[in-house]
Amino acid sequence: MIATLALASALLSPAQDPMAVPPVPKELDRIKFMLGTWKGKGTMTGSDLKSIPVTGGGTCKMTMDRWVSWDGDYIMPGQGKMSGRMMATYNNYTGKFEGEWFDNLTPYALHLTGYTEGKYLVFMSQDIPDGNGGSMKFKITYVNESPKKIGLTVKLAAGGNYMTVVTFSYDKK
Question: Which residues are paired to 16 by β-bridges?
């Protein structure tokens, strides 16, 4: 009986209590370069593979002490206005950045997992059905170019080969 109580006590210690709230991960400091209000321009690749100008920007803030929240609005000729949100954090248990991107032009949430390397934050999406029996995957890279400048590149892989579909440059307002 005493051994059972000792075992139960050890299992419920704060270090192992599955209900204990994990500390806010220090790894979030690596992506705080995104915080602020941003405006920019760039290009996207249209369905005809021609480059289309894109303008817009976003506001990024910490929310709930552990989530980076990016809200953006973009004007894309021929596509209209896209409003989107990304919520991302560092998962203490998996050792990866994780998040979701969703917007008004897409019928699904894009689940992202990622890592930081130097000045880069790199996210990979899960495979997404392409509507033609195949799948596609996104690679999204944010670059901390300076305290007042962020770069963004979005690549799309269909059939295993990545092609750049968005390049964007943000300036801090």
Answer: none
Tens of pLDDT, residue by residue over 26-85, are 999 999 999 999 999 999 998 888 999 999 999 999 999 999 999 999 998 887 899 999
For 122, counting Cβ atoms within 10 Å of its Cβ (0-12 exposed, 13-18 middle, 19+ buried), the class is middle
C-alpha dist (Å) from residue 68 to 56, 62, 169 = 19, 5, 19
Cα distances (Å, whole numbers) of residue 8 to 11, 16, 17, 20, 157: 5, 11, 11, 16, 49
